[in-house]
Amino acid sequence: MHVAFGRWESGRYRPAGARGLIAIGDTAVGMVAVGFVAVGGVAVGPAALGLVVVGLAAVGLVSAGLVAAGLVTAGIVAVGIKAAGVVGQMAPRG
Fold first, then answer.
1. Most CB contacts within 10 A, which of 4, 21, 50, 94?
2. What residues contact residue 12 under an 8 Å CB cut-off, 6+ apart?
3. pTM metric for this prediction
4. Per-residue pLDDT of the chain (94 residues; tens, 9 = 90+)
5. Beta strand 17-19 with 47-90: parallel, antiparallel or unpaired?
6. Cα distance between the two ends of the chain
């Protein structure tokens, strides 16, 4: 488990990245990732990328968010094979 958040230096915010099996922080990369930018197997955050994803902008195999893209998606704007949303686009079958 790795938890890392940034700090203020000289009036500027310096973000920190967390990397680990379970990662929590400004930017998180791990099997379970929670952060402002999250990348992992299970990713949760405003900008998230992974296999199972929840976020404002979510991209993954199974994703949910305001803007979601992937195989199975749900969101206000959803793009995927199985998409559910206010604005939904399903991929053409071929």
1. 50
2. none
3. 0.77
4. 888 777 778 878 777 788 889 999 889 999 999 999 999 999 999 999 999 999 999 999 999 999 999 999 999 988 888 888 887 666 665 5
5. unpaired
6. 43
Contact 44, 52 (CB under 8 A): no
Which of 74, 94, 70, 76 minimizes the C-alpha distance to 84? 74
Rounded Cα gap, residues 55 and 12, in angstroms = 26
Both tokens assigned to 82: 């199985």
Q: Are 55 and 46 in contact (CB under 8 A)?
A: yes
